[in-house]
Prior knowledge:
Elements: H1 2-9, H2 14-29, H3 33-46, H4 53-66, H5 70-83, H6 90-103, H7 107-120, H8 127-140, H9 144-157, H10 160-176, H11 180-187, H12 195-211, H13 215-223, H14 234-249, H15 253-266, H16 270-284
Helix pairs in contact: 1-2, 2-3, 3-4, 4-5, 5-6, 6-7, 7-8, 8-9, 9-10, 10-11, 10-12, 11-12, 12-13, 12-14, 13-14, 14-15, 15-16
Amino acid sequence: KKMKEFIEKFQASELAAEAQFNLGIESYEKQDYDKAIEEFRKVVIDFPESEIAPDAQANIVECYKKKEDYRSVITEAEKFLSYFCDNQMIPQVKFSMGMAYFKMHSYKEAAETFKSIKDDYGESDFASSARYNLALCYKKMGKSEKAAMILQQFGEEGSGEKSVMAKIQAGIVFMEKSDFVKALTIFETITPTSAKESAQLYELMGECYQSLGKEADAIQSYLRLKALSLVDNPYQVKGLAKLAVFYEKQKRYSDAIDAYKRLIQVSTNGQVKKSANDRIAYLRQ
């Protein structure tokens, strides 16, 4: 209440704008996003010339993002771009807008938005993620060559987790086109940075070798999954199951039993455990 009185008393000052903005922040921190939107909107309407007005409008975009109201994210982001057309937060707001389009499956609009960040704000903190997301949009739009090219480039220029994920995604694009040789040439250059990435990589490589009829290489790839300490990782579970089936086919029954035992250790899924135990019982007969 005191804050409201202060705002009314110093209506024309920057201090009043800041006080109003802080009311929005308070509501935002309490996760009362509707109230926060109301308070931030007052900053934009009552203090349009204040230094804090762009922040208020950007925060309205954030609130709608939290509410998962993606249509409103786009509307409010467009307002920001027309009110504050030379503000430094444009890349951030555009990125939220691109993500909203993506969530709504409007991939063409999402691609255009991410591309404009990449082209016009190449130095911003959002350019790299925009480029990655642009590739994902192209993938969704069926433009797989374009997607793979960006992802490969991204993977080679970057480092760490994002670089690994980009290369894996590029390989998957070629797998979806049944170009397993090309996928493998990408996968073979990857150095995973975590057990999770390793699991995905080894399973996908196994799948490629299997599709090319290279059983021994597929087995080697799936075999690497045994050593990973993960729980309920879909790639590890899938790969170990395939490994066990390979061993059964080759009549290497004790190896198959070992693979099924490892499968039981890394999965908490009752159905998976039961199937593996059933196979072990059958093979021991």
